[in-house]
Amino acid sequence: MTKQISFSKHENEVLHGFRNKMNTAESTEDVKKFFNYTVIKLLNDIFKDSVKIDSEDIRLKTDGKKSYLIEDSLLKQERFQNIWNNSDIKRILGTFADISLKRYKHLETNPEKTKLKIKNNTR
After folding, report:
1. What distance in Å separates the CA atoms of residue 63 and residue 17, rounded to the nearest whole number?
2. pLDDT digits (tens, 9 = 90+) for 90-111
3. According to the lineage, what is the superkingdom (predicted)?
């Protein structure tokens, strides 16, 4: 039996700030950007320099069953693959994606509120 590695400490360090960013997101593009930035930062904190992670390697997926997409180039890196298969990173990314998708759908279904909020902030 393999030992499961937990990165919940890293998750908790960025979760509060991430929720704040999601609450202030004014557009669906903001949601995607905040998700990407936070997840890349989280993974870079976890892997340090042992895995090369580009900003295009992980994206929020707003349609379909999966809530995020990871590029094969990242999944094929042995160090990433080892941690991916033996840790709680999948769950953590799922949590961030679920929060993002909830905000994304809210902004998508209420565009007038978003436009009004943007208009009021520019005065």
Report:
1. 25
2. 999 999 999 999 999 999 997 6
3. Bacteria
